[in-house]
Amino acid sequence: MNTQLDPTKIAQLLTQSTQQLDDTTVTALVKARRNALAMQPSRAPAYALSTGRWTDHLIPHTTMQWLATGLLAALLVVAGTNFVQHSEEQQISELDVAILTDEMPLDVFVD
User: Fold this and answer.
1) pTM above 0.70, yes or no
2) Of 1, 11, 19, 27, which is least surrounded by CB within 10 A?
3) What are the tens digits of pLDDT across the range 80-104?
4) Domain limits of the chain?
5) Exposed (0-12), middle (13-18) or buried (19+): which is 61, by Cβ within 10 Å?
């Protein structure tokens, strides 16, 4: 039993069958549909770094999402600055140790 379902044929049959319903049933179905739609949660913009096919815009995001993004960017800047400062201090301390232990050649001190 391999039957192919044609969506247009199904839509036509459903349309014909709804035309045969009495008014009280149609009214009840319309009321139930409105209630179901009222219970649906409203759509809110989703935060994403990728906008897919440019169908979404970055503007409608909430203030909290923008604050979180700014905080993350600031944290990355602070972490990067701290890393650079630490590596410079490490190089300076290695140079100081080399000078104090006389492992530096004499040419370094002569201008």
Assistant:
1) no
2) 1
3) 999 999 888 887 787 777 777 776 6
4) 7-39+60-108
5) middle
